[in-house]
Specification:
The complex is a heteropentamer. Chain D is built from 11 helices and 12 strands. By secondary structure, chain D is of the alpha/beta class. In chain D, helix 3 (111-121) crosses helix 4 (127-141) and helix 4 (127-141) packs across helix 5 (157-169). Chain E has 3 domains: 2-272, Periplasmic binding protein-like II (D-Maltodextrin-Binding Protein, domain 2, 3-Layer(aba) Sandwich); 312-335 and 604-634, no CATH class; 343-567, Dipeptide-binding Protein, Domain 3 (Dipeptide-binding Protein, domain 3, Roll). Chain E starts with a helix and ends with a helix. Classes of the chains: A mainly alpha, B alpha/beta, C mainly alpha, D alpha/beta, E alpha+beta.
Amino acid sequence: MDTLRYTLRKLLYSVPLILGVTLLSFTLMVYFGPDMAYEKLGKNATEEDIEREREKLGYNKPFVVRYGNFLTSVLTFDFGESFSTNQRVMDMFAETIPVSIMVALPGFILGNLISIIFGLWAAYHRGQRLDKTIMAGAVVGMSISFLIVVIVFQLLLCSDYGLNMFPTTGWEVGMNLEEFNILDYFEYVTVPAICTIFVSVGYNTRFYRAVFVEELTRDHVRTAKAFGCGPVRLLFKHVLKNSLIPILTRIILSLPFVIIGGSIIIESYFGIPGVGSVVYDAIVNGDQPITKAAVVCTAILYVFFLTLTDILYQVVDPRISLK
Amino acid sequence: MTTPLLSVKDLVIEFNTEHGLIRAVDRISFDIFEGETVGLVGESGCGKSITSLSILGLIPSPPGRIGAESSIKYQGKELVGLPEEQLRLMRGHDISMIFQEPMTALNPVFTVGNQMMEVIMRHKKVNKKEALKMAVKMLEDVGIPAPEKRVHNYPHQLSGGMRQRVMIAMALSCNPHLLLADEPTTALDVTIQAQVMDLMGDMQKKQNMAVILVTHDLGVVAEFCQRVIVMYCGHIAEVGTVDQIFNRPQHPYTKGLLASVPRVLEEKVEFLPTISGTVPDLGNLPKGCRFADRCERATEECNAKPPQLTIDEKTQAGVACYHPYK
Amino acid sequence: MTNEQNKQETIKKETLWTKAVRKFFRDKMGVISFSIVCLYALIALGVACGFWATEWSELNPDMKNTGPSADFWLGTNILGQDIYQRAIFSTKTAFEVGLVVALVATMLGAIVGCLSGYFSGTWIDEFFLWIIGCIDCIPFYLFVAAVGFAVNTLAQNLNASFGIEGFEYFAMHIAMIATFWTATARLVRGEVIKIKHLEFVEAAHAIGVPGPKIIFKHILPNTFHILLVQATIAFVSAIKSEVILSYLGLGVKNTVSWGKMIAEATQEVPAGIYSNFFAASAFLFVLVMAFNIFADALQDALDPKKVS
Amino acid sequence: MDNLLEVKNLKKYFPIKGGFFRTVVGNVKAVDDVSFVLKKGKTLGVVGESGCGKSTLGRAILRLHEPTSGEVVFEGKDITGLSHEEMVAKRREMQIIFQDPFASLNPRLTVFQIIVEPLEIHEIGTAEERYEKVCSLMDLVGLRRQYMHRYPHEFSGGQRQRIGIARALTMNPKFIVADEPVSALDVSVQSQVLNLIRKLQQEFGISFMFIAHDLAVVQHICDDVAVMYLGRMVEKAKAEDLYKSPKHPYTQALLSAIPQPDPNRHIDRIVLEGDVPSPINPPSGCPFHNRCIHVKEICKAVVPPVINTGTAENEHIVRCHLFSEEEQAKSKGETAKPTAESETTS
Amino acid sequence: MRLITFVGIVLSIFLTVSCGERKTAKGKVYWHSEDGAPTKLDPIESATTYANRITTAVYDTLYEYKYLKRHPYELKPNLAANMPEISEDGLVYTIKIKEGVKFIDDACFKTKENPKGKGREVVAADFVYSLKRHFDPKNSSQGSWLWRGRIVGLDDWGKAAREAGTTDYAAKIKGLQATDKYTIQITLTEPYPQILYTFAMGFASVVPQEAVEKYGKQLTTNPVGSGPFMLKSFNKTKAVLVKNPTYRKEVFDIHYEGYDEEKHGFTGIKALHGKTLPIVDTVIISFMKQDVARWNSLNKGNEIQFGTIPKDQIDNALMSKKPPKVIEKLAKKFHFDYERESGFVFSVFNMTDPAFGYSDDPKRNEMNKALRKAIRKAFDWQGRIDVFYAGIGEPFVGIIPPGISGYSEFPKDSITRDVEGAKKLLKDAGWTAENLPVFEYPNAASTTATQFFEQVRGWLEEIGYPRKKIKQKEFATFGDLNKSMKERKNIINSYGWGLDYPDAENVMQLFYGPNASPGSNASNFDHPEYNELFEKAKPMPDSEERTKLYKRMTEILLEECVGMFGFSRTRLKLWNKNTIMYPTREILSNVFKYVDVIKKDKKKKKNTKADGNGNAGDANNSGDAGQKNTENKE
């Protein structure tokens, strides 16, 4: 009951946030965004046609009216059809979001798991050679550009020049239960996942190590040691659980972006029909219905996950109450 | 009182800091006998807490380490250099420890019962149910009301005094022979401090264990201990019984310290006697006696070479000073 | 009391900063990385002054995609341009992007974070948190793209109405600043809230120091260690983001950068032409790596926990 | 005009927010209905356990925390109603010394900058005069002038506390709140600082409000001592009176609980049961009733009144029902006085 | 220990994946690739080649081009029963359509009588309806310009709908009528000999009204046509077409389609003679913008079956460039062919820009002309071709590419680089480094575009243009660039023009004054004599006389120095040897129906994969490949 009340209140408080996000995104992406009228009418349009098209797209209305319309569609959750493909935005999202999630999630989860293990390991051996090796590796990993990683892995694993083990591009994975085949999935997800892991492990390990080191200096860890606790139990029972708050925050708050943001680079480089590239294209092309929907969905997800983290905090740390 | 329970010889503890290697504890030796309560007193930074941590091998390393010639013998068994696994078996079982800050010393995300059971199950071959029973019993022993309820509480749901009681219960749950109490009452209010000290006294009598009480509060020592080790700047300045130390202090530092403590129920004095100056920096110690430049009785000799502590075998008392008060 | 004072004289006089510097210079890796960064900075300065890499845009139609040679140390690209010179010239671009973004984003973050933290619990804090929340809600690249476009449109309007030219050149910078400052602001806010409750701030109140002076004289300087580290992080992020943004077509304009070179390389590498790729990624990697290690060393040196 | 400071029914409540719309649902009564008078040149010690509101009281008097209600009359003028500007001016005369010698000095400023800042704020003197003033202050508190341009972290705890004192003295205040100035210091340094405060007190006739949790420390410095418990002042008297014949059961327990560095002393200690209750939800009636060994029915319901058991000149104020009865009893000619040695619990 | 197990599991998964059978679609599958993706598949908006290829595959057009006939391209009836009857004055066209052609079964046809949604017959009125859609003000047609002002009453119908606010599809239009169930009658306002070509374009696809009414804007993903294929799925990266089971009987007659043993023999198309179209069951089209990805995928052998050679690979892939010939290794795996695009790339100045175009001040006007000419002299066509078009092909003078009727020869000075001449021109006209205007080169952000710019900058620097005055005006997308162009904000526009139909008129209109931006005349060139000549030539069919007029018009363009033209790129196409087809991207679009794939023998698969030679074992193919090689040598 408390949780429910808390959630409701939290959602109520998030109204200004969502309003702000819509205002910000409207101003940036719609008001100052690209003008589609010319592109929609092809190579031999007349002035009159263009004027009419602009009217149809609503470019001629004043800021307030346009923002009002924007808000109305946000409130009614009616985002209409994409300007550039005429498909219903919600259909497009329904088709692309699962793909993005399936592409991003394995790398995301494994990346975080590996980092947590590395982080614990390094933190426990703080100042020793092992720690230094792991941290040096992390810095190297952090210093390589994502783009370079993608190029190299595609070359190594997907091309005739390398091992040629995985498909170069595409996403031939059945997206419903009957068609889904785990082998297909592994085939297409492996290389993107490896790339994601490679770039994220460096950052994550550093972050997690810092969290664990901080926790390891706490008095209760000394207490546990003074009562004969061994390293494995110490790390996994005492340190890990106590540092779950920053870890959860980091993981959960990046989930909305994993879901809606996808990874533009991965998706465009591996030709995966995910939501990231759809949204990116929409922004650069001025496809308002999609940008609108994307921003609103992320904001709502963000608020949702924010609330979720707060609730989880309480589970993880009994000191925190929902007040 | 023949063989000591714990015998510390030439203990050296060094820390690698940005100012180079510093010796927080420099060649100290003392013995603890079964059942006795020894106060380890001194001002902050004198190395008293580090000494108690070193006994259990809990010096954070790096940057800290125990010197090579040091020896800590527990019941004749050498603890320095003992493998971590064996030390782990002794921690909480033979030698237990309680800490200054009960708020942070207990893990905030587990119930007190969980933490106590962890200790009990590690050192005694019992199942969960029995461990819980023992934990409840222990909590009852340390005077916590409604222990079967409290055992499921988280540390933050208890008051400071309660937490320290839990800490004591946890430390005593495996009937250790030696309890290291590192400033157990410093963080507590006076009225609570009195409760906790009384409790510790009772428990000690019940379990017949030796206690090393690390504290800076001379009042606590006077009321609670039988013997006192006074430390100054990584050295032991003076060792003796409570009576000797408080009534007939020999070392100028002990004497100065005792004089400068404000007391209640005496005739009001205009100004308190003081020890001038400050404690020297550990990275920049004088060559001779470390108290020399604050000492009224200091001579050339004091500045040249540090005085050695000689402990009388029989009285277990001694002073490290060239010019002790008689 | 004389004893105490004698003691005091033996302690060397040093400020927090000199102490940090001394500590920093004891860190071997830190010093090496710092010298690398300095070397890069020097290269960038030389490029800016026109001392070297002046022929980065010159075409050599007969020297298309050649390998390393005496004339072209790192070979040439598809237009026959000298890749070595281009890589060197890109150093300047990188520093330009990094410095502008790091400085402005950190300053903005510091000011907002300070105000927000100082007025925590009031509507001012709520307002700033709201703005930060709104920005953080939007995925990074999407936001950068959106800001980049908006700035471009704005630049066109500015050009049309006021004749201000060249504003669009900063579209990417502004986009990055708009996203980077929030992290600094959050950190500074947290630190300020912590500092605000320290007694020296209360002491300042007690002697009647006015609010703004408390913020900027007493509180802000105590967040400098965070700002410095945040600035280095922003610097590295800016350079790295530039690569992705260049690939997406939102990068720097009218000049060459490592990002642009790598974007070119995405097409060339599969054809077995590696000059652009190796040159740019090596230059980029070494600088980013050095900067990362430098930032770490700096953080260690400035860590107030370790200083006191 | 003998009275420098008069505090009347001072209250400081911190609101607790809760519920769906974060409205105020309760108050932490940090300081609840405290009144006292401080004479010129005298020192009042305020003693109590952590969370009893003694620090808040000090800050509320200086309006570092805005008091919820009540009056603070300083030199005959109620300062609670002063505007911000007027208060800034008043701050010249009322200063504070803090507990934590590490947190109370800005680590980014030199000693000179720290000590001179009040002069700059109040635009007093020329640069040279200011320099002179700083030098003399440093001499006064026992710091060498040469250290003027050093940073706080280069000093030891005791020296830092001296810097803090020098800063408080810059404006030649008439009244200083010393908030546990020696609690964080080691015994040997503690006595040095205590002596310094005593010296200043005698030399300049500054009135102090000396906050401490250690009764022994207070005894050396103070003329009057007030004991606080859960936001209320439960007893106040001249130091000698209070220490010799504490009246309130809490004061008695507190006094007996202090361990003395004297193995020869064996008194029966009154050990209180339980913990200090939370100020968010204090017990009804007398806040001490749930730990008091003399508790009566009335204690649980009625807040005890302020009773002067001393003379008009030599006040000994107690807030305890035992004494209201006693007064009644006295008038009836009976004697029923609780004593410290009446009962012990263990 | 657990770690080792884990690693083992992961490894075994990798191994199974790499050895695993690819899930195959049913029947014959042809896997095509494109270098870009269509956005909309509604015929009225299918402006790109990518979209056109799919719309023409799923919808019917009245006419289409013969599969193998080139230069000239030749129309043949598709949905139309035969070639039209044209009145004497060339104004009235009467077109009969085939009887019994059915739309695919679709939910939009569901009625009480037809609960299963069986596709109804295609009638003449459907064509009339489909053309009207372009003029419906509710729609944003990209193809209406093809018929704008050409058909009697059609524009007025649109105008009336605009004014009324509602569209009345039932309203009769004089010039566009279905005179009976299978007859269409079109009346033109003036002779428009190219109109038949427009009826072969995807824009003129026949759409049933039921589908439009049911799906509205969603028609784009729910095409209901009568073409050889049906759209199964479509997204940004992939479209899947499956055979239309109700498609009318159409038999492949290679001789009718223009088969030439010498030209087409190597492809093995001969074997397809007499087969019923479409031949394959499924067509997968992957849209891969990344050259690298396309190239890698093609080379793997078991992915896409058709691809082009990316520019960066050309040096590796070709053993000679004149004529283009691929290296042994590729020739073994793939069929190779090349084709000149039916279009060209060119750069035109914005003549309304005061700094480079026309100026009211006659002196400045002359100076600007000299500046344009100097820039043209600085332009190094060979350099551009070498870097960006692999050095294959020659630039041509004038605007009509060779091979298109109406082409004439001109002296080569407008495409010859002359740095000294350019410098002299500038000097003589009074240009100095100080007074030269800022040269802003606009392009859409891409690596190649930046390289274009850098090359231009290099050239201009050589003729003494200060580097600081040469700027890149980068637009993040082509849409932005397009907008800027349409708003006449660029000083120069470089782009490619693909011919909509194989007639020079489609090129000459690019400089016709009334077509100025936002029309297709990006140079905004407005020259009285040119306009007059254009109008004169407009109703003429291809003839000697018209060519003469076009020659004069081209001379005007060259003299005024409107821009730098032109060059037709050569496309280098590779396709897997298991695929029988003659791929093209020019003019033709509905070509998937002619493709055949030799189905892989599953048992043999491993071997074929190992030697990397699709289906070399097939006797039919290997011989032909040799033939092609000999042809190349000649």
